[in-house]
Amino acid sequence: MRICVIGAGYVGLATGVMFGKLGHEVVCVDIDGRRLRDISAGRLPFYEPPLEKELRKLVKNGMLSASGDIKKSVARSKFVFLCVQTPSLSSGKIDIRALKTACRDVARAMAGADGYRVIVVKSTVVPSTTDTVLKPILEDGSGKSIGREIGLCVNPEFLQEGSALKDSMEPSRIVVGAHDKRSSDALARLYSPIKSSTFRTDLRTAEMIKYAANSFLAAKISYANEMANLCLRLGIDSEQVLAAVGEDPRIGKLFLKPGLGFGGSCLPKDVRALKQKARELDYPAHLLTAIQRINDEQPDEAISILKSVFKDLKGLRIAVLGLSFKGGVDDVRDTRAVPLITSLLAKNVEVVAYDPIAMSRFIELMPTIRYASTVEDALTQADACVIQADWPEFREIGRAQFSKMRNPVVIDGRRLLDPGEVEASGAKYFGVGYGRARRE
Ligand code: NAD
Ligand code: UGA
User: Fold this and answer.
1) CATH number listed for the domain at residues 235-440
2) Mind listing the pLDDT tens digit for each residue in 340-359?
3) How far, in Å, is the centroid of ligand 1 from the Cα of 221?
4) Which ligand approaches the C-alpha of residue 101 most closely?
5) Could you tell me which residues are beta bridge partners of residue 353?
6) Is 122 in the pocket of ligand 2 (CB under 6 A)?
7) Cα separation of 439 and 233, whole Å?
8) What's the DSSP call for residue 80?
9) CATH class label, 2-201
10) For residue 6, which ligand has an atom nearest its CA?
11) Among 115, 125, 190, 377, who pairs with 129 as Cys (CB 3.0-4.6 Å)?
12) What mean pLDDT is reported for the chain?
């Protein structure tokens, strides 16, 4: 089967590689020429080593190619997956301009092409976008009708960055939302080699499943953060509390890790978008509002711990370790490092920032702060360090590095280090949800 993927980002490339590995011939279309050159050379435009390894193999054996020619790529394909970005507008609504442009291009390409093909919306869009906005664009531009000459599906993606390939090959579930039975049968058949529970729904239900899932993940994190903030003020270690809470199978252990809030290209924007949709429907969505508010304020938890240690932060040098939105990825979209560093700078703190992989991307967001080339360099003469992202290599920080600090104080924003080991290596340990700060 020939498959066309429009938008060669995280989702597009994970989808392309997954179908390539299942034996289909995949073409990835993008408007970014540099991205296309990278893919053609077997290189991923982002840091995801296992996915890159498979991409390289597929490019080499001709099963996956990159193209800027949408017309030809669509005309030759039986399935077209729309995987372009849907970022937040300042109102919180999603920006679907890229998706509308891609739909117009796909529609034009279909106008002159014979045969039945299925258009699959994989980008995350709020319920009713596909049937009320995208469907008319596809029909008007192609002169063909959906349900007869064209199939239309919504197939949300649930992968996590950092495990994109595994999550694509072994998804927790597959959602096939479809306009009609023929489209649904075709997409379900395409996915049949992947063994997972499949939910066949209409278009709006599939759109809503994606938002409901991400909102729940966000709710768990904001809940964990609120419990952790309370534990800290009570002088209790939240890790012990949440470990015991998570043992209840009705609650579950995952996504109960407190930190400096959830970042990334999806959880924050999806909560914002669903909240905006609720507002349009005159529904107050109190839970979504609370999830977002806790998350917005969570980076300040590091500031409040720092203040409990130093009283006045002015003139201190603070190392911020980890700039990506989580460890293991180079994605800096909506990273909590931005509000954290912004708050530190507002308190006249000198910030030295370090990340093992994401530094070059982060520099574009905050070009004027000082960057260090190693953890040791960042810690040298620092009065404190804040761990913002859970990079595995930060677990190795010990006496040799702490001894470079003017004042060895560690604020563990992701509960990565063992408090006892840090203290044994001569530094003072404070963590999100770790009661020492208030007890002292
Ligand atoms: P991305 O920004 O990494 O990639 C989008 C790509 O689309 C870019 O390469 C861009 O150049 C390209 N593009 C934009 N307009 C185009 C056009 N008209 N024609 C061809 N290409 C075009 O985006 P992403 O992170 O892969 O996210 C894509 C969608 O999937 C979003 O709706 C997101 O919410 C959703 N999603 C993302 C993830 C994730 O982990 N990143 C997971 C699940 C769902
Ligand atoms: C998230 C979801 O986990 C995916 O299922 C979904 O497909 C994706 O969004 C999406 O829709 O794009 P991802 O953005 O890769 O995936 O990131 P997560 O691993 O979910 O982490 C998000 C943020 O929450 C990170 O900042 C992370 O540090 C934080 N987090 C996560 C916590 O603070 N505590 C936790 O227990 C888990």
Assistant:
1) 3.40.50.720
2) 999 999 999 999 999 999 99
3) 24
4) 1
5) 320, 371
6) no
7) 8
8) E
9) alpha beta
10) 1
11) 125
12) 97
Distance between Cα 124 and ligand 1 center (Å): 9
Q: How is the chain split into domains, by residue range? A: 2-201, 235-440
165, β-bridge pairs: none
The owner of tokens 């966000």 is: 218
The neighbouring-strand residues paired with 387 are 321, 412
Q: For ligand 2, is residue 310 a contact (CB within 6 Å)?
A: no
Segment 103-124 mean pLDDT = 97
- Residue (of 91, 130, 125, 96) closest to 272 by Cα position: 91
Pull the structure tokens for residue 397: 């920080």
Which tokens belong to 100? 């509308």
350 touches 384 (CB < 8 A) = no
Please work out, in degrees rounded to the nearest 5, the angle formed at the alpha carbon of residue 137 by the alpha carbons of 212 and 71: 105
Give the CA-trace dihedral at 5, 11, 16, 18, to 10 degrees: -150
pLDDT value at position 311? Answer: 83
Q: Is the CB of 31 under 6 A from ligand 1?
A: yes
Q: Which atom of ligand 2 is nearest to the CA of 220?
A: 36
**Are the C-beta atoms of residues 125 and 153 closer than 8 Å to each other?**
no
Provide mean pLDDT across the span 76-94.
Answer: 97
Q: What type of residue sits at position 50?
A: P
Q: Write down the pLDDT at residue 436.
A: 57
Closest atom of ligand 2 relative to the 157 alpha carbon:
7
DSSP code at position 395: G
Are domains 2-201 and 235-440 of this chain identical in fold?
A: yes
Establish whether 385 is a catalytic residue: no
